[in-house]
Design goal:
Distance between the termini: 11 Å
Helix content: 40-55%
Strand order of the largest sheet: 1-2
Number of helices: 3
Radius of gyration: 11 Å
Shape: globular
Strand content: 5-15%
């Protein structure tokens, strides 16, 4: 996963976050989307994160490598 600096994170549009209102869980690429799934697992927001990742990257989690 590429390092996301604070400046780069601020430049991302809200649509590149699984929680756009809070700007939490950046999902601007597949690597960050997988990381967001992992970090949200077991938390109350996990369902929302899964839905956002599935909408943006429908092939993640289908049992195949999608890089």
């Amino acid at each position: 996963m590429a390092k996301l600096s604070g400046g780069a994170r601020k430049k991302l549009p809200s649509s590149d976050f699984a929680e756009p209102g809070k700007r939490k869980y950046p999902i601007e690429d597949k690597s960050h989307a997988r990381n967001a799934l992992s970090r949200s697992s077991g938390k109350p927001e996990a369902k929302q994160v899964r839905a956002a990742v599935k909408k943006k990257y429908p092939d993640i989690g289908k049992g195949k490598k999608s890089r």
